[in-house]
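so i finally got all the pieces together for this one. its two components total, 340 residues if u count the protein bits. some of the lines might not be protein, just check the labels. i wanna see the whole assembly predicted at once instead of chain by chain like last time, that was a mess tbh
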Amino acid sequence: MAKLIVNGEDQEVQLPATVADLIKQNNVAQPEMVSVQVNEEFVDREEFATLQLNEGDEVDFLYFMGGGAYV
Amino acid sequence: MFDFTEEELNRYSRHILLQDVGVEGQEKIREGKVLVIGAGGLGAPVAMYLAAAGVGTIGIVDGDVVDLSNLQRQIIHTTADVDKWKVESAKETINAINPHVKVNAHREFLMADNALDLIKEYDFVVDGTDNFPVKFLINDACVMAGKPFSHGGILRFEGQTFTHLPGTACYRCMFKTPPPAGAVPTCSQAGVLGAIAGMLGTIQAAETLKYLTGVGELLTNKLLTFNAKTMDFRKINVKKTDKCPICGTNPTVTELIDYEQAACNLKNH
């Protein structure tokens, strides 16, 4: 098992794993709606299935959030 | 040098006492012109705190009327304001809080054809809207016009915000394009704890005042997120990216776009 930092918290992950695998393991509700950073660089959606994660990687999931007034 | 009346010096005394603000900072606040887009959950606390703070000119953009279901979080409106234009109701509240503030009530919806004109005369823009087409429009218009703005989003028990200055990460650096209409719920569909709007709106108001006075570090190149269920706050470092469709090296977004909004949102806001 390798240690990754996911959304600021340590997470044990079985490597090899891609960004898409990690999204699946974290039960992201609408994976097509999440924006992903690895080590503070945004990852293109097209690379989710191919980009391999490494020990110690910092991964952030950013979610769309509406809210406020309808204008 | 500063022509504050005795009444104003007294009114703003708790700002003036702050070493970082002082009379000079209060003068910058008074000279400030801020456009608040949306007089709803986020725009309400933003406009009220900016009014109380003595921001000289506050513009409010909203083409909607007050609905009873708004009052759970849109504290600038009261029960007696139901069915009034939100900009009128907001203006009355602002004037009641602070008669020194000049309020520009823009009773219209922000669209691709009026966005640049509306933001033109302001120093800082606050996104208090609840839907992605307008959030992208605000981002694009501000990036194009070189205007600083505060982004805000809330949903259920969560909120997120960042501040953009020309040259720092923009909304499209983080989220390239709007989600398909209806794919991500808005508050009108998913609900929101009313106080969350206050938590996020007051952060946006504080960022606005920091910008006007030049005090502290803004939330640039950072996305602040919080979850009120756990009260976990997190600041995520984000970078301006060369691949950004609007502020990157080969921008594909070269004009403002009115994106489609899910029809259900139009009826149930």
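Chain B touches chain A through 56 residues (CB under 8 Å).
Chain B has one domain: 18-267.
anyway lmk what u think
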